[in-house]
């Protein structure tokens, strides 16, 4: 199978926003001939067929994996162990397995535990840094990965051919692919994705715990509040699983953030306007630099 040949059978396990968008993007690129889905919600799976994201709903994992060229795991990361255990006896020797999980060390640990060495040669852990606060196949869109980063964290035993095949498929979806260790991935994403989601969720809950009715305050919330809290509309199941999977690193991030908040609190308590202005200027500068590098890339 060379990199430019279409997959005869692509299997998506968990046909939601991420799995559905991958299926749509590969179909648009002419790289997936037959797409089979397997899921937990019958209603979502029926919808996936009706809107043409998948061609067929598999009745079970064994049927899904029969003659599969590539399996894309796109269910919440907490489901990985259960799914890999069910897949293991039905995998053929050269089926490529990849995933979209937001955490990587836990997914790799599950693969090492459940997949035989022969299948691990073809296992390419991955993570598209693209998404939305909406869930389910109806939110899927073929352009979701256009100009977005995808991080691959191969195992030492993953074959170069499998990595290159998966890299090429993501590039065909319009993404820019990077390789990284799973440990570095989980550190970086804890700071840039997992902590921000916790902050958005806790800010919404914080409003609920005050003396005022939340509806009264939210009536006058503006676009700043809306931008900051958009991600608090994300799937609670998905985020429970991510937080538990990256728990140790996330606990460190929460502690470090709490220290940052405490130093700002001290400046405010002391009415130190100059230091406050400096802290805000530094934050603005860092964000503007980040936006400039994004627009140049
Ligand atoms: N949403 C994002 O922004 C985003 C971005 C990058 C990666 N991810 C990762 O991608 C994965 C999917 O996220 P999503 O946003 O597409 O979620 P989603 O809720 O839209 O889709 C997940 C689908 O998996 C199905 N599912 C759950 N358990 C299953 C099981 N045991 N067997 C088969 N199907 C099962 C659900 O019914 C659902 O349809 C998650 O691991 C998430 O961490 C999400
Ligand atoms: O845009 C959003 O709504 C997202 O939350 C996307 C986002 C992110 O944090 O950037 C969320 C989880 C991922 O694993 C990757 C991307």
Automatic annotation (TrEMBL):
EC number: 1.3.1.12
Alphabetized SUPFAM superfamilies for the sequence: 6-phosphogluconate dehydrogenase C-terminal domain-like, NAD(P)-binding Rossmann-fold domains
Catalytically driven reaction(s): prephenate + NAD(+) = 3-(4-hydroxyphenyl)pyruvate + CO2 + NADH
GO terms under biological process: tyrosine biosynthetic process
Superkingdom of the source species: Bacteria
Residues of the Prephenate/arogenate dehydrogenase domain: 8-297
GO MF terms, alphabetically ordered: NAD+ binding; prephenate dehydrogenase (NAD+) activity; prephenate dehydrogenase (NADP+) activity
Coiled-coil segments on the chain, per record: 247-274
Regions crossing the membrane: none
Entry keywords, A to Z: Amino-acid biosynthesis, Aromatic amino acid biosynthesis, Coiled coil, NAD, Oxidoreductase, Tyrosine biosynthesis
Matching InterPro entries: 6-PGluconate_DH-like_C_sf (IPR008927), NAD(P)-bd_dom_sf (IPR036291), PDH_C (IPR046825), PDH_N (IPR046826), Preph/Arog_dehydrog (IPR050812), Prephen_DH (IPR003099)
Biochemical pathway: Amino-acid biosynthesis; L-tyrosine biosynthesis; (4-hydroxyphenyl)pyruvate from prephenate (NAD(+) route): step 1/1
Family label: Belongs to the prephenate/arogenate dehydrogenase family.
Protein name (database record): prephenate dehydrogenase
């Amino acid at each position: 199978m060379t990199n430019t040949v279409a997959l005869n059978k692509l299997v998506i396990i968990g046909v939601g926003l991420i799995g559905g968008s991958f299926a749509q993007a590969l179909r648009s690129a002419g790289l997936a001939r037959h797409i089979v889905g397997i899921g937990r919600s019958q209603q979502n799976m029926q919808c996936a067929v009706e809107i043409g994201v998948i061609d067929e709903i598999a009745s079970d994992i064994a049927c899904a994996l029969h003659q599969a060229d590539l399996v894309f795991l796109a269910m919440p990361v907490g489901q990985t162990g259960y799914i890999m255990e069910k897949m293991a006896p039905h995998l053929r020797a050269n089926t490529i397995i990849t995933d979209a999980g937001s955490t990587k060390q836990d997914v790799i640990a599950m693969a090492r535990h459940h997949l035989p060495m022969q299948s691990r040669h073809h296992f390419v852990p991955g993570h598209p840094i693209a998404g939305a606060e909406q869930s389910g196949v109806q939110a899927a869109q073929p352009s979701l990965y256009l100009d977005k980063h995808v991080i691959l964290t191969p195992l030492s035993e993953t074959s170069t051919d499998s990595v290159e095949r998966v890299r090429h498929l993501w590039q065909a979806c319009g993404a820019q692919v990077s390789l990284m260790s799973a440990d570095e991935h989980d550190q970086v994403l804890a700071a840039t994705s997992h902590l921000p989601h916790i902050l958005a969720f806790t800010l919404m809950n914080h409003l609920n715990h005050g003396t005022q009715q939340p509806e009264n305050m939210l009536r006058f919330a503006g676009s700043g509040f809306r931008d900051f809290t958009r991600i608090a509309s994300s799937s609670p199941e998905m985020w429970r699983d991510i937080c538990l999977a990256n728990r140790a690193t996330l606990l460190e991030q929460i502690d470090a953030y709490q220290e940052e908040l405490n130093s700002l609190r001290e400046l405010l308590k002391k009415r130190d306007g100059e230091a406050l202005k400096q802290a805000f200027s530094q934050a603005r500068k860092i964000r503007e630099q980040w936006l400039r590098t994004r627009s140049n890339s």
